[in-house]
Amino acid sequence: MNEDYNQNVKKLVEMMEGVRVCMLITREKDSEDLSGRPMNVSKIDNDGTVWFFTKASSPKAAEIEESTKVSIAIANENSNNYLMIHGSAILVNDKIKMKELWNPILKAWFPLGLDDPDMSLIKVMPHEVNFWDSSSSKMVVLFNILKAIVIGKEYEEGEHGKIIL
Amino acid sequence: MNEDYNQNVKKLVEMMEGVRVCMLITREKDSEDLSGRPMNVSKIDNDGTVWFFTKASSPKAAEIEESTKVSIAIANENSNNYLMIHGSAILVNDKIKMKELWNPILKAWFPLGLDDPDMSLIKVMPHEVNFWDSSSSKMVVLFNILKAIVIGKEYEEGEHGKIIL
């Protein structure tokens, strides 16, 4: 855990701060196919760990039990926030952690609240983070994003980087 | 090609109409890892085919040559547009098609214009489309999105569906 590592994680946490919804991508059981769905980000820890609530009986929970490899895709045109995170996921059935992350809005899906026996957490530990962002004007950002994609170079008025965690 | 099929494709085209940037996910060469990057959508045809411009020498072009399996992730919080598309991709080196899809903004990445020998098109033919959208208010949408995700049911004030093309 050197200084670069800490800086990279800090950057990731900053980029994730405004993200409410992302696409969580898992591997389908018994196939090479992918499966993705929008998920509400419950929390990102200071070490980069991302937390989601899920039904323990959901297909995605079964998929994570089968293969821990997951990806998180964020592509927000409005905020020019583009992130592709690859990592390992596990299901966590820790009631203390659930209580810590609990938000009243979750009652809509867990009417029993924290007593719901089908509640579980998905904990994603990122291994690799690719990002494309910029604080410059939209037009320049679009230019730079595409430049970064197509040419694979850092773009001038934003940043394009690959964080290895 | 029955009526349902046509309706499904029409729905997909409608949902893609406002999308400028999506995350294009490919399989990394010689590994099971995924690779994703934001891409500008050049066009979606009436039959659901999605087109992108790329450098023929880019890693993603090599990845598509190795494995045609790709996914497109769209997760736009602001427009509440959530789409996960799985399909097959091929590289297309058809100058007539490039001319048809050409947009002056592309000059930034292809200064030689249509004469650039490293220009190629990525053609994605969707097989499966998952979507979560809604025309209702944001709060209700957030509720419904999560409900759809977690419980896997259709949500009341929006739509959650799986289109098999």
Kindly describe this structure:
In chain A, strands 1, 2, 3, 4, 5, 6, 7 and 8 form an eight-stranded antiparallel beta sheet that branches. Helix content of chain A is 26%, strand content 39%. Chain A has helices spanning 3-16, 59-66, 95-101, 138-151; strands at residues 21-27, 34-40, 43-44, 50-55, 69-76, 81-92, 119-134, 158-164. By secondary structure, chain A is an alpha+beta fold. Chains A and B meet through strand 1, strand 2, strand 4, strand 5 and strand 6 of A and strand 1, strand 2, strand 4, strand 5 and strand 6 of B.
Compact summary:
Two copies of one chain form a homodimer. By secondary structure, chain A is α+β, with helices and mostly antiparallel strands.
List the helices and strands and how they pair.
Two copies of one chain form a homodimer.
Chain A: H1 3-16, E1 21-27, E2 34-40, E3 43-44, E4 50-55, H2 59-66, E5 69-76, E6 81-92, H3 95-101, E7 119-134, H4 138-151, E8 158-164
Antiparallel strand pairs in A: 1-2, 1-5, 3-4, 4-7, 5-6, 6-7, 7-8
